[in-house]
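Quick log. Single chain, no ligands specified.
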Amino acid sequence: MEKIKKGGFKIVRAQGPIIFAVSDSIGETAELVARAATVQFNSGHVEIRKYPYVTDEEDVMEVIEEAKRLENCAIVCTMVLPEVRKKLVELAKVHNIPILDIMGPMIDIVSKITNIKPKLEPGLVRKVDEDYFKKIEAIEFAVKCDDGKDPRGLAKADVVLIGVSRTSKTPLAMYLAHKRLKVANLPLVPEVAPPEELFQIPPKNIVGLTISPEILYKIRQERLKALGLNGDATYATMERITKELEYADNIMKKIGCHKIDVSNKAVEEVAARIMELIGKGE
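-> predicted structure:
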């Protein structure tokens, strides 16, 4: 590169044009737009420099000082902080640096058609994306650890739900997964000892689900009818239900975990209580 003096500043003659992708977040959008445009001109001849987290006047001055030293450059910015964006645009124009403000006009248009004030918070798109992927991860975890399928997952769960069959463990796990919580659920059956992993988890991360024997009887009877089975099956007898509930209660007492009676309660109501108990309330 050739360097010469001009007007007291050192000008750097770059090998090709340079575009500054400037943002008050990570700068991916500004860079993407710049690349999408330059590819139309054989983008190998244009260098793109990303300047993320430009959030105050000092940061703006650093970008402008760098651009002033270059003979052939432009700025593309995606900034939501109005004062910082305004300063960058003003200084770029003062120094005859071509600048494209993408976010400002777009925010103004959306604000006008929705009649809603913008949050003006940098990085919201990235946060929304992160939130989405956390939700997907939690849902996949709930499926993998449903009904005691993978006892190894118990230690990785934000909350473990335990209880007898038909106490809404799976619906609750899926509902909580949409709240970005990793949930494992485990059925308690007298004939099957709980996995040792259950007793190695902090009791505060475990929630036992209990239910009225009469309500559970009705639920199980309806379940058998839906499956086309005889209502006299042991699974739905009051004797069997009482035995299971007593066994589950003893396990919960042994663990010392939280307990919630789900009788006549909606999934949303129980889920809210679970989140409150484990300190994840909204």
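Residues 130-277 form a domain with the Rossmann fold fold (CATH 3.40.50).
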